[in-house]
Design goal:
8-stranded parallel β-barrel, TIM Barrel, 11 helices, Aldolase_TIM, binds 2-phosphoglycolic acid
Amino acid sequence: MGRKLVAGNWKMNGTNADLKEIEALGIAWAAPRVDIVICPPATLVSRMAFALGGQPIRVGGQDCHAEESGAHTGDISAEMLKDAGARYVIVGHSERRADHHETDEMVRAKAEAAHKAGLTAIICLGESLEQREAGETLDVVGRQLAASLPDGATASNTVVAYEPIWAIGTGKVPSVEQIAEVHGALRAGLAERFAGEADGIRLLYGGSVKPDNAAEIFGVENVDGALVGGASLKSTDFSPIVSALESSL
Ligand code: PGA
């Protein structure tokens, strides 16, 4: 099994002044067995990478274009993120799938671009409340997994984040049984397609992970860490989540 991972997704939050939250994350030294990534808005990637100095925390982007360069006003390529100091990039977050009409095919192309640039892609998927209530969760995430992951996915270049849309930013969290069911199905889906790599591809849970529920979530089988939104913005919330993962090992 690979190392466990906590990734923070700042979304469209954060200016220069917030880099102090990173400097306050002395926690990295206290969690030597856990990988830590922060994905700030693109404007901060370079400065954050610099601010982290020698701290064992990686920086990630929140999206990338599928092409390397060209006439795509406002977009950023995986190469550019790499050049700015990023090691990871989130692709296919449900907010981008909704706001920017991103399809599984587009997400797969972005993940391929990330791999080509040498970045680890954090590929997000998850069902809506309507799909959950209709009993379609495993079908939906199975389809997303099959269509959003490129053939070249390996344990080192790919992380999958299960994020039920209804749990994002809502304070609602699936039961441990529900998380275990989906993560078990995702692991089986990975095993079918990626054989030897499947166990090493990390499966993160995301959606309202907080200091008070992190330990319970990290105890669930096939949960290799978390993708954290709101609670990644303040070091006082993020640090205890990282500590909970370290203590679960
Ligand atoms: P949340 O967001 O932790 O604020 O629910 C998670 C995410 O969208 O990655």
